[in-house]
Amino acid sequence: MNVRRSAAALAAIGVLAAAAPATAAPSPKATVPAGLFGKGDPTYDGVWRQSLALLAQHTAGEKPADQAVTWLTGQQCADGGFASFRADTGKPCGGKGAQTDTNSTAAAVQALAALGGHEDVTGKAVTWLKAQQNKDGGWGYSPGGPSDTNSTSVVVGALAAAGEKPAGLRGKGKTPDDALASFAVPCAQKGGGALAFQPDKKGELEANADATAAGVLGALGKGFVVESGKARDKAPACASDGKATPARLADNASAYLIGAVSKSGHLMSAMPGAENQPDFGNTADTVVALAADGWTEQAKKPYAWLEKNAAKWAEQSGPAAYAQLVLSAHAIGADPHDFGGTDLVRALDKLGPAPAKQAAAPEKKATEKSGNSVWWIIGVGLVAGIGVGFLFSGRKKNRP
Question: Is this entry keyworded Ribosomal protein (predicted)?
């Protein structure tokens, strides 16, 4: 669900070779349009980062700016899909124009479905997504491309957010659950329980933490925003006996993730060419995945690590990174306004159009019992007001 997932898909089709960048680096040729979050080149992640930013704001209780929402809806192509970025929305998609992809489309659907009031846009996008389902039940990044765990999972989340029942969708043969099960590494093998991004050229499955976190949500039929599942006491273990249900797949994948973060509290980057360094984004995804599957206690360790270490990463990476952290905080019931001393929501807001101001709650009028009581209430209010004034004044003076 994260910016690395988008980057991983792009790398898989030869667009990016570097490891897991957050937001694309600024380009002298790139013009960042009004309404879009972030200042970096939006060519490869414009719709993705916008969708996550709007979703995070909404999840944090804010109303995104109309300008930001309009920018996103305006990116939709005539066929209902979304491309990663359309610099000129007057030009048609396809051909030499912007190319639609399942990841951007699914992200946009999740954001717009959460905001509500965009059924015309999400309806066309859902129809487009259904038409891209492969015979194996999954989805690839590009229409007609081979299925992968990440794309399948983000589409499942989008369909669920739009009110569909993706588990039973078999447009061309098998279901999404069938596809995800085919990517699961057998328990007896190295990385057992994890999911692969795709089988390699020999058909072998290699554990991929990013795909595994995505696969948990896909198996559970959930999108980017999750509420903590009912807390479960006993930590999961990879099990292959009995029926290979989606719930079993999710538990096996969770067992792998718990083991991966058990020592250090974080995952390591596994992208080709990347330095051996902590993977902040996939660690945030792990928090969301574990919380969604009910392993809330196990999710607290990687979240605590993020609180201590991820603020600088988000600052350097941009809106999608801040959004990921907001969503991970939400998943375990933490306060995104107090993330190791950083207000994630405020930091995200600064990178795009200011959210709409919430309507103030109407003040309750005091009931007048007698003239004396009314003046007594007014007097107390004046004294309290003076005290509050000094309090806020002190806070401003002490504010760094």
Answer: no
Q: Say how many C-beta atoms besides its own lie within 10 A of residue 178's C-beta.
A: 13
Name the residue among 317, 322, 318, 316 with its Cα closest to residue 343.
322
Residue 109, Cβ neighbours under 10 Å: how many?
32
Give the amino acid at 385.
G
Question: Residue 71: its pLDDT value, please?
Answer: 98
Q: How far is CA 327 from the centre of its chain?
A: 6
Please state the φ and ψ torsions of residue 384, each to the nearest 5 degrees. -65, -35
Q: Which of 292, 206, 197, 283 is nearest to 251 (CA)?
A: 292
Beta partners for 195? 184
Cα three-residue angle 357-358-362, rounded to 5 degrees: 130
Domains and CATH numbers, the chain: 45-350 (1.50.10.20)
Three-class SS state of 210: helix
Instruction: Say what the pLDDT of residue 235 is.
Output: 81
Can you give the pTM of this predicted structure?
Answer: 0.84
Indicate the pairing of strand 82-83 with strand 100-101. antiparallel
